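## Example record

The block below lists the input lines for one assembly entry, exactly as stored, with component labels intact.
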Amino acid sequence: MNDKPWEPRIVAFFCNWCTYTAADLAGVSRMKYAANVRTIRLMCSGRVDPQFIMDAFAKGADGVLIGGCHPGDCHYGEGNYKMLRRFQLLQRMLGDLGIEPDRLRLEWISAAEGDKVKSVVNDMVEKVRALGPLDLPGQFQSWDRERMTEAEALIHAGHQEAK
Amino acid sequence: MSKPKVAFYWCASCGGCEEAIVDLAEDILGVVATVDIIFWPCAMDFKKQDVEAMADKSIVATFLNGAIRTSEQEEMAHLLRRKSQFLIAYGSCSSTGGIPALANQFSLEQILQFAYHDSPSTANEAGTRPQISSRQNGHALQLPQLREVVRSLDQVVDVDYYIPGCPPTPKLTKAAVGALLEGKLPPKGAVLSPDIALCDECPRKASKPTDLGFIEFKRPHQVMIDPEKCILAQGVVCMGPATRGGCEAVCIQGNMPCTGCFGPTSRVKDQGAKMLSSISSNIAPKEEGAIDQVLAGIPDPVGTFYRYGLAKSLLRRKVPKQG
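Predicted structure tokens for the full assembly:
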């Protein structure tokens, strides 16, 4: 793994009715865009639980992209508004936790906007590339290196068997 | 036959959990009649050497409260783990990091800099900082090392059960001791409190509207809270929807919102993310500017949603700048 140069990894949550269909259209139209995105299809952007986003970061994503229907066009009426509100608070809170705003992005992309999928993905990949790797799994490991092992603790505690 | 041996210990905590044991009041006599308390530094005179001298697994249960911040606490956690059949994380700090884990928003250096130099109440002209080892009048003195990260107990050693709460209620404590003595324990890793959201047992549940439609958030000191009505419906952040029940809504009964000390239910991975989701989805406006205006009423989302759980959140702490 280490001999490969780092490439941004972006997890994309796309809604079934608009953005996923747009990504499909981009594919069918043979548009080329950066291959750094792993797309997950959900029925609605309103299904995107902030836990999914934080879990993606915690498991190694460098960025998370959410795509939903334009305001007023949600297949279920209000799902995209719910996502918008969560996004605004989550982006601020992640900022407080040291995750740069450019690592999380919300876009409205209708089923007809294949070219927008292309431009948004390419733009986001460049922005995340400029930020560099987040690598939370690696960070978790390095944070935990300061912990004592059991053997160290028991030797310290003067425990006979451990000596 | 000798009585089962029980130990109590504290790490990074305020002492409230020790108080909670004392809050068993006259019931503590019943506990003392059935178990031998062999180690409880806060209340009784036993030494660490006494624990070291015990055979492995000879303590039936250790109730350990407090988060883990220092090398000494790690050492004691390992020692008590080795000597105990059951290690129980007692209280919010031990279970999920608690208030001490809010320090995970800062580096250790920032904290030391503030506490020993910059805080307005600090008088430290010589700029002295605690040293791990020093010499005083020819004696070598040692202090525990502060870690960079505050941890829950299970991020340091294997934990058998969790009793949540800041502090846990006497009722839950008694039930846990009872279950332990009768051998009626749930599967390992269980939280010894009902696996339902607090809203479920809240006396104001009936007044919670389906659509909360927040237009403004107020903090408890900015509003006279109606003692009959759902606190969320009054525009005050109440952690009830994302917090485990079992406390019998004591804070609500005191007319204060839930701040989340019982942690999440078993279905939730990250209490703060779930609460953020619930609160923000229910805001009334649909335009960015108007949404931000409502959200301005939550100036400190980390402190609000992770008041007791930052150490066990998905991100664990503020991610330090790399490189």
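The domain at 10-132 of chain A is CATH 3.40.50.960 (Rossmann fold). Chain A has a mean pLDDT of 94.
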